[in-house]
Specification:
The chain is mainly β and 664 residues long. It contains seven helices and 45 strands. The strands form 14 sheets. Strands 38, 39, 41, 42 and 43 form a five-stranded antiparallel beta sheet that branches. A hairpin with a 2-residue loop joins strand 6 and strand 7.
Length: 664
């Protein structure tokens, strides 16, 4: 039976606990057999000033509880709104908490001291979540509220301890990066928030990971924003309280209450991955290689021109082979010209992109010196040996995981960029009735121009079959004229029965392009596009998996973050809410309606990292019961200021409608 807690007309109607005990759908677990346990959070007995007070002139707030309490990380969790320039002084002693505002109080301003989930009892650690004290320095107090939830855009992890705030509209272009928000709060352990004591009007909502405590956004910080203005409002509702008398008899009473709207704001935070672009270092690790490292990815390669040696004026990319990371932030130039290789010092004029003092990406020029560190001279006893020139070889080996997967090409790695491979010296054979038979195979080649030392050969593999790869000596030649040693290696392929197959029938996707990621824990191991409403994963190694889908708005095949300046949200992400146990030789087909499950229930608990703390008294069995929401003894405290749209049983439960209707 659900027990609705009444708030008395004194403190209860004045304490602004709009998100009271949202942490566990306001649940208070019943007593199991074996004796009573303290499972209730501390209760406020009094406060000075009293909540809802007006004409307050003293910035000191004293709160008294019914039991000894402790504060958990108060300097980070307790938030004062409007934001303060000076950090408030916070102390606790026994049953008392004192908060002293160090800023001068503003005239005719409503203040909110939000204690979030910082208060807990001393013995059992029961958390009082959602406690807030409000007062006004003028003759009236602002009372409107808005509520919602914040997730990480990429992983749908609840955002814990994130600053959420509003600016009154219209919002100046520079306000977000220069001015503190008008009113603020912090998210709780489930990512939920309530911004209290708002004036009537129009607002724009933001959430930031405010690392430097300046209450506005810096480009390196995480951010979420609502791409529309909101106007707080109220709605009259009726609520039913359940009262239990001393004899244990229940009675129902219906009474009017107020619901504060909107109470279902969904924010998904992202990071623009902004880093100033600059050249970190340039080195010459050996005679043949020049390396450049940029601070972050770049959109174009640097323009490098030789300034000395007989090749002065020549472009380096014509005198070397480039090996690069995908983001063009780590570059290695393999010199080919013997004059350059033999020169101790190379001077190069570099023109490359960097971030200027106005935070714009522009070209800059620089002169780079690459000096070769001379090796230490060897002792005389080694000189005779060193006078005999050593033969140098290019090494080549298979880098594919073995046994060979049927859906993966044969991969090779070399020790230096290759110049050529003699087709007559490269063979792949298959074992048929104890006889090696040749099979058609393409000569290995680089997958792209930026990976000259990685080679692949596309193959149509036969299941559970042995192959032999032979590369004759002198068949592979690198850019320095060095050849390979003879190479022979047998390769075995998996049996078709070693794999599982998984098919997702994606419902309600509409015209959007989408990619499904197969996850091991929360890390992608495979991804496949949705084609004609189906995402197909073949040749899957058996095991436990999870899945998520993202809307590929720009159809580039990867998840993209958002942009504040362009008012672009991160690409929407959806989790398949169940674990997938795939076994050998199984074909599994799953129906997945991506908008069916509310967003805060999508991510499986097993891979969710940000979870509310577990009460000390709660057993593992009780925890599992609470997670499933099937505890018949559950008692709920009702907050008269706001219904909980996030409660699993609520008809107003947060839906995906605001994501479905986002502009694409």
């Amino acid at each position: 039976m659900r027990k609705i807690m009444r708030h008395n007309g004194g403190l209860g109607s004045l304490f602004v606990v709009a998100a009271a005990l949202l942490l566990a759908a306001c649940a208070s677990i019943g007593r199991p057999e074996g004796g009573p346990r303290d499972m209730t959070p501390p209760v406020v007995v009094s406060s000075t000033p009293a909540p809802g007070s007006v004409n307050v002139s003293n910035g000191r707030i004293d709160i008294v509880f019914d039991e000894n309490i402790t504060l958990d990380d108060p300097m980070n969790k307790i938030v004062v709104s409007p934001p303060q320039k000076k950090q408030a002084q916070i102390s606790s002693n026994g049953r008392r908490v004192r908060i002293t505002l160090r800023d001068t109080l503003r005239d005719s301003t409503t203040y909110t001291v939000d204690l979030a989930d910082a208060v807990r009892d001393l013995n059992e650690g029961n958390i009082l979540d959602g406690l807030a004290i409000d007062f006004s320095t003028g003759p009236s107090i602002d009372t409107l509220m808005i509520s919602g939830i914040v997730f990480e855009g990429r992983t749908l992890e609840p955002a814990q301890g994130m600053i959420v705030g509003v600016y009154s509209t219209p919002v100046a272009d520079t306000a977000l990066t220069t001015l503190p928000m008008d009113r603020i709060t912090k998210t709780n352990a489930l990512g939920r928030f309530t911004i209290r004591n708002l004036k009537p009007g129009s607002y724009r909502v933001f959430a930031i990971n405010d690392l430097n405590h300046d209450f506005h956004w810096d480009r390196s910080e995480d951010i979420a924003f609502l791409d529309r203005d909101i106007s707080p409002s109220t709605m009259a509702v009726e609520v039913t309280d359940t009262f239990t008398d001393a004899a244990g008899n229940d009675s129902l009473v219906t009474r009017p209450a107020t619901r504060f709207l909107p109470d279902d704001i969904l924010l998904t935070w992202f990071n623009e991955n902004y880093k100033p672009l600059y050249l970190v270092k340039h080195e010459r690790p050996d005679a043949r290689r020049l390396t450049l490292e940029m601070s972050t990815h770049s959109d174009s390669l640097p323009q490098l021109t030789l300034l000395n040696t007989v090749r002065a004026g020549a472009r380096l990319d014509r005198e070397a082979v480039l090996q690069s990371s995908p983001g063009l932030d780590s570059l290695t130039y393999w010199l080919r010209d013997t004059t350059l290789i033999g020169s101790d010092t190379l001077k190069i004029a570099a023109r490359y992109l960097h971030t200027d003092t106005l935070d714009n990406i522009t070209f800059t020029t620089d002169t780079l010196t690459f000096a070769l560190r001379q090796p230490k001279k060897k002792k005389k006893r080694d000189e005779e040996t060193d006078s005999v020139p050593k033969l140098e070889f290019v090494n080549i080996g298979i880098s594919s995981r073995q046994p060979q997967d049927l859906n993966i090409p044969l991969l090779f790695e070399t020790s230096a960029p290759t110049a050529s491979i003699d087709s007559a010296g490269f063979r792949i054979e298959v074992l048929v009735d104890s006889v090696w038979m040749p099979v058609a195979a393409r000569i290995p080649s680089p997958p792209d121009s930026l990976q000259p030392m990685r080679l692949l050969t596309e193959m149509t593999w036969k299941p559970k079959t042995k192959y032999r790869v032979t590369i004759d000596s002198l068949a592979v030649t690198d850019i320095y004229g060095n050849h390979n040693r003879p190479f022979v290696q047998e390769v075995s392929t998996h049996a078709i029965e070693d794999y599982a197959a998984l098919f997702f029938n994606i419902g309600d996707l509409g015209p959007d392009s989408a990619i499904v990621e197969l996850l091991s824990s929360d890390k992608p191991v495979r991804l496949e596009p949705v084609r004609n409403g189906v995402a197909t994963f073949e040749y899957v190694t058996p095991g436990a998996y999870y899945a998520r889908l993202f809307i590929d708005r720009n159809q580039n095949g990867r998840w993209d973050t958002g942009s504040v300046a362009d008012t672009v949200q991160p690409e929407d992400v959806f989790y398949f809410s169940k674990k997938l146990n795939l076994k050998k030789n199984w074909d599994v087909e799953q129906q997945w309606n991506i908008y069916e499950t509310p967003v805060d229930l999508q991510k499986p608990e097993d891979i969710k990292k940000n979870k509310p703390p577990r009460p000390k008294w709660e057993t593992e069995e009780e925890r599992e019961k609470r997670k499933k929401g099937n505890n018949d003894d559950e008692e709920e405290e009702f907050d008269p200021f706001m219904n909980d749209p996030f409660a699993p049983q609520s008809p107003d439960r947060l839906s995906n409608s605001n994501r479905r209707n986002r502009p694409r």
